[in-house]
């Protein structure tokens, strides 16, 4: 309590605007340094087949390996980077790094990269993706781009054009956090999505809420009609996984299967995952 008051008193010394400006410019400088010093890292979370449980690919999730603060999550710096041109540098790095890493994986595995729509507005993203695919040798169908629908509101035409260009390369386009924006459905009219990722809030609510389960059923059926792949994220329990497979979601992702993994943990994950799948299928055959 005393400590809190002490901090409050310190805050009084400079105006809120000054303090925010100072924090902003120091974060900007630190983030630029982070790119140069290679402190940004990608962790990889598996997406598993809802029908077989096999890993089908991994989503690359950015973290900032900060020298003092440790591993910093994207919620603390991506929004900030989007307000400056840093999001373009970060996005370009992410695409190159993810393609390079995935090019070393077994060939059936895909890699998903989160991109900000801001990046789509200001850069030749088609060129960046073509170069990253060329340099890494990754087959285009193994790359997936995830875009959060809420960010697509502006400059619809130029974004659509770039999405079409990327899709024409053979790259998969996914709408992330489906259901959270106020015009999710209208985006399906405007954009050539291959895949919908149902926002984790619906999955979390499905445990106790029949309405959430009805919404999930409706999204799964919409996906079937549109012939898009449906992924559910934030799957934390066996019960949720069972329900989502029952309503025929195609892919599942969440802590129930694995947390985002440090790249160094990937080989072990894949080995034990494959061994586990083999043992399970042998057991089924014996039964
Ligand atoms: P997202 O793309 O929807 O990613 C899913 C988030 O849910 C990740 O958080 C992931 O760690 C977390 N998650 C996975 N399974 C579970 C689960 O079972 N339960 C719960 N409660 N959470 C789960 P993370 O890594 O903190 O990323 C947050 C958001 O930051 C991402 O949401 C994405 O929008 C953005 N982001 C992440 N990496 C990048 C990037 O490289 N570039 C850009 N532009 N945005 C990124
Ligand atoms: Mg995502
Ligand atoms: Mg999401
Ligand atoms: Mg999200």
TrEMBL record:
The keyword Transmembrane applies. Keywords: Membrane, Transmembrane, Transmembrane helix. Coiled coil: none annotated. It comes from Devosia crocina. It comes from the Bacteria. This is PAS domain S-box-containing protein/diguanylate cyclase (GGDEF) domain-containing protein. The keyword Transmembrane applies. Residues 24-274 form the EAL domain.
